[in-house]
Design brief:
single chain; about 170 residues; mainly beta; eight-stranded antiparallel β-barrel; 2 helices; 8 strands
């Protein structure tokens, strides 16, 4: 008498799905909820914000901005350009970005300089391909998060959005 395992097909499908997930490099956290802020005030946003490698963004009360060495977000980060210039910003609760809370939308309206970020040790670059030129205008959508002291942080995801690498700006 031959015994059959009634769960055999289910087990085979589960193993197949697990193997496919490993092959495509699925990030198990890619669908985690992104923290959302709903109570930010414009006065909390007005300030100078800094990140690594000399990045500084100054958001003024009149809605204008000064940008220094800010990288592109999501896949644009991979182009390695960094821009400086002037622009405008707004605090909005329109749906955009990765959460359903408020966002800071920053638009570079006048580029005054650009630079190229040095590739990191884990970046595989085609030596024959030069870096992409920096755009003349560009718009970032910053997510908002509160740290453990309830102070705001501005951030966006960079590189492959599935990797959830965050580019975080803190008050100067």
């Amino acid at each position: 008498m031959v015994k059959t395992d009634p769960l055999g097909p289910v087990r085979r499908v589960a193993v197949l799905v697990a193997g496919l997930l490993l092959l495509v490099g699925c990030n198990p956290h890619m669908y985690d909820e992104v923290p959302a802020v709903h109570d930010a005030k414009r006065a909390e946003i007005v300030d100078s914000w800094r990140c690594a490698d000399g990045t500084e963004v100054t958001l003024r009360a009149d809605g204008t901005a000064a940008i220094r060495l800010l990288d592109g977000q999501e896949f644009d980060f991979d182009d390695r350009w960094r821009v400086s210039g002037t622009g405008v910003w707004e605090l909005t609760d329109e749906r955009g970005g990765w959460n359903d809370g408020q966002h800071v939308r920053l638009t570079l309206t006048s580029r005054t300089a650009s630079a190229t970020r040095t590739p990191g040790p884990d970046e595989n670059l085609d030596a024959s391909a030069g870096p992409e030129p920096a755009p003349e205008t560009y718009t970032w959508t910053f997510e908002l998060q509160r740290n453990d002291r309830k102070r705001l942080l501005l951030y966006f995801f960079f590189g492959d959005p599935d990797s959830r690498s965050a580019y975080v700006l803190e008050r100067a």
